[in-house]
What does this fold into?
Amino acid sequence: MQTKRTIFNSKILPYWLILPQLAVTLIFFVWPACQAVWQSFLREDAFGTSTQFVGFDNYVAITQDSSYLNALIVTVIFSVAVATVSIVLALVLAVAANSLLKSRSLYTTLLVWPYAVAPAVAGVLFWFMFNPTIGLIPYLLKGLGYHWDDRLNGTDAMILVVLAASWKQISYNFLFFLAGLQSIPKALIEAAAIDGAGPVKRFRDIVFPLLSPTTFFLLVVNVVYTMFDTFAVIHATTQGGPNQATNILVYKVFTDGFIGLDLGSSAAQSVVLMVIVIALTFIQFRFVERNVQY
Amino acid sequence: MFKKIALAALALGLSSSASFAATQITWWHAMGGELGKKLDEIVANYNKSQDKYQVVASYKGTYAETMTAAIAAFRAKQQPDIVQVFEVGTGTMMAAKGAVYPVYQLMKDAGAQFDPKAYLPAVVGYYTDTQGNMLSMPFNSSTPILYYNKNVFKKAGLDPNTPPKTWEDVETFSKKIMSSGAAKCGFTTGWISWVQLENFSAWHNLPIGTNENGFGSVDSKLSFNGPTQVKHWDNLKKWQTEGIFQYGGPEGGNDAPPKFYSQECAMYMNSSSSRAGVVNNAKDFEVGYGMLPYYADVKGAPQNTIIGGATLWVLKGHDAEEYKGVADFFRYLSTPEVQADWHQFSGYLPITQAAYDLGKTQGYYEKNPGTDVGIKEITLNTPTPNSKGLRFGNYVQIRKVIDEEFQALLGGKKSAKEALDAVVERGDKLIADFAAANK
It folds into this structure.
């Protein structure tokens, strides 16, 4: 049986069809990005009444700014910590949920819930739980002899934002791992079991390697998430403090641009961020799509 | 049928054009909650009092958000007539000569009745140019004062009617309070930057920066890292370790009020405009009021405190008719009745002498003790170049730097000297950046 194929001969039609998407991309993404690039070469007062072209001055200034360097280090620590915590916990939960027969879908539903919570709300929840004055957890920690103070202790503040950001991301990672686990052929695992491999060995030598494409994909996605989507978490909890201990790059772009009204520097910083996200996307397309071998 | 509809449409058109006849004045502000409701009431009363102008007030979020919104709107040529800007944004607004319509100029051009001498110098001085011309209209100004818990004082064997005068008193009172078990902590404070550094310097008649605290020129330098300030920050660190002082968080210090309300801390320093909140929340104890403490061995202390809060700036780019309305609205805002009402409701300072006098004749200050402590502080002595205020570019960020370095001090990463030196170094760079961008 042969299905009849419809062929459109018009050469312009495809362009008409992608036009809406193209327009959205151009107006809301490309145009502002170009503006940011242009703005990054200018030095302006807040109201835009006096403008000077300063070339690469804004870029040179951020490389010499110790707080920018600090933000870079903080961002690396923050992304690595969030990616590790959320991937490891999600994997543990996925393996556990996958081993259940009857209640698997119940657990899956429950574990996905946090993903529906807006980042700002997640931030506020953790802020309340860990608030040194009114929070429950500092109160419990006091019983264990630890004086929790995310207002003054940079490490405590970092732990707080890592937990708040990971909590949300675990749900997302969990779903991918669960799907990954279910696509592993049962025959492979059963064959290994017959050959005498225990559960730990089966996981280490068969399951985990087969999950490596998923893991690598999640690693990239999580790093992008922590670098660009955690603004609300930071804004609702520490606001970059104490003493810039949680001041990640995106948050610094916001404070310098919207609180400090230093648009030139803020634009230069966002151009740097743009380069980073382009590089990460490139890595994802180039390697994730094909390169993970079993 | 058709006729009927046409008539209805005509009637509708007529009625809407009637209300359009009033010139609309837009006002963006940052007053949320109770203060926002009061502000809406003032606007509604003004709109009722005449029919030429209609003021439309919109709440735009925090001070920083309101200012950013107005600036973005100006760049898109959609600016409001009036915008409320906090005191640390003054440097930025003042430098934006092409965007701002100075209030003294506006009042002159509109031919409105306006006497600059009617306003309290300690309030208006913060917002005048070097020739003494008023650039913006003060709306809500406050100054920090000391609140204390009379019940705790009594329990600790202290006189509940004597607030501490000096920082030495604060220390001995706190120790007594803590050792007697009357409260867990001596004191806490809001606004480290505003209360424990800027006002601290003015109160001890010490310079905050060069060129008369920046009033003289844009390219000024900070100088609040002197020995007295270092000593004070050293003490704050020491008192924090001993439990006498508890940190309330950066900026306004959101954690500070609950510590005072829950009677954990016996004393609390914050804006005079916090009074309404303090009175409402101090359910189980009586509140006492005092002036800010000072170090007895510093010559010239106490001098006078400086203000905080916000003023109304007029933005350029509208019709002369609208500006006439703005001028008329400012005249209305400055009338003693409106001022006294706003001042008594909110705890902000009155901006005119007449409003203060009206409160006195009403017997308001006797009936409500503590309401005039702020006024007494700002008028304690004639302001010196060190104590009339401060005006630096990029000061919003410098406030943030002060918070960060104070956290480094309390976190044990830096000594008081190192922290204050770092504030000055980082602050000077921000001021220089601002001067370069506003040449």
User: Anything to note?
Assistant: Chain A has one domain: 56-288. The CA atoms of residues 115 and 168 of chain A lie 5 Å apart.
